[in-house]
Amino acid sequence: MTQKLLRFEGLFVLLASLYFYSILENHSWLWFILLLFVPDISMIGYAFNEQIGSILYNIFHSYLIPIFVVILAFFITNEWLFSIAIIWMAHIGMDRMLGFGLKYPSGFKDTHLQRV
């Protein structure tokens, strides 16, 4: 039940992100698609070891930083920064929906959602 709830939460975040991106003016869907997978570059940390890989991956796959970026974008009224944060949250939501969670240092396949 918990896993289904977390996947549904990811779907909701993805759909909400798509909606909020759609109401932004002058933002390209091509950029959305191209930037959607940028957070996965954080997997490069696994080239060093599983400890560094999990830390780097979790930093870029937690909602904390994109939420901070949304707040910052709001206060400095920067729509471009806001769109980056929305795309970032869409990526995290998509990952959660597919069952990819935050990583444990024991291995790339060990996540908070399941063993992938």
From TrEMBL:
Keyword Transit peptide: no
Keyword match 4Fe-4S: no
Keywords: Membrane, Transmembrane, Transmembrane helix
The name this protein goes by in its record: DUF4260 domain-containing protein
Domain of life the protein comes from: Bacteria
Stored Pfam families: DUF4260
Transmembrane segment boundaries: 5-23, 29-48, 55-76, 82-102
